[in-house]
Amino acid sequence: xxxxxxxxxxxxxxxxxxxxxxxxxxxxxxxxxxxxxxxxxxxxxxxxxxxxxxxxxxxxxxxxxxxxxxxxxxxxxxxxxxxxxxxxxxxxxxxxxxxxxxxxxxxxxxxxxxxxxxxxxxxxxxxxxxxxxxxxxxxxxxxxxxxxxxxxxxxxxxxxxxxxxxxxxxxxxxxxxxxxxxxxxxxxxxxxxxxxxxxxxxxxxxxxxxxxxxxxxxxxxxxxxxxxxxxxxxxxxxxxxxxxxxxxxxxxxxxxxxxxxxxxxxxxxxxxxxxxxxxxxxxxxxxxxxxxxxxxxxxxxxxxxxxxxxxxxxxxxxxxxxxxxxxxxxxxxxxxxxxxxxxxxxxxxxxxxxxxxxxxxxxxxxxxx
Length: 369
Ligand code: SF4
Description:
globular; Rossmann fold; alpha/beta; Tyrosyl-Transfer RNA Synthetase; 2 domains; 17 helices
């Protein structure tokens, strides 16, 4: 843990675009394995694996083995209640739902200690957002029944604090500085609380493989957790992880950011505003129709195409037709943007209808009713 990963722009709390070469370097330095054909075959139902949005993993074979042998396994993820659910939070949310559908018990954390330390949001202020965020993930399909899920707020869960204290005696300021750069102690503590979040499934329900789906920017947290698990909880499984590509801002900005409202949309904003943002997204289209017809577009650079493959088009055949239509110059950006906006709005409308009915359930699950 001697390298300063901050030196090349990996920051779990911050900004900074990752270039292709950063991915290559991070994959090597963090020991991330490529998704093998075996994994692809066994997890074919998982859309993000099939579509190569998840590009790598550590120890996913443990999960495959548990599935094969019908043994217990867990998937752990969470959300920082610092604002409404938005496009940038959708990838991990869909991943936990997909892994739960594959048979894992879902452990979902409301990271209110982190939202205090990172954003200055008090636990009380975070409650309303937490209810709203949890209703969103329930509407996305998370099954909250006790056999299939465990949901907690960090500030109210003694287990995660106990783990934080237990592992802390093995952690020096130098170690944290090497992993995260110089930060407030609050953020260091939040990262040790997160070790607690990731180990909670094994404390609560016994030793079992646990997968944590994350973006590459969260790799330092996973490295710290694996290291501390090995040293503090010797019989536990070291957490497995999957890594997805981070989605850039839809307007072409390096990253989705609250400072740039056109780079993303929340699930709570007006339909009109969402449509406007989708229609204003960066495409991989040419300067005009004639050039598009002659040269074809570049879907790999296009945020419309990316939004569809990540979230809003379930039909693999349609995705492939869009790709072909684009590169052959048969599909025009104006038409495609409109089709995409219609799909996004239809998704959001149905989502809101489901979510509305789940607010009371969310309050109950968080003990805030
Ligand atoms: S045709 Fe569609 S996929 Fe191709 S660049 Fe335009 S918007 Fe993107």
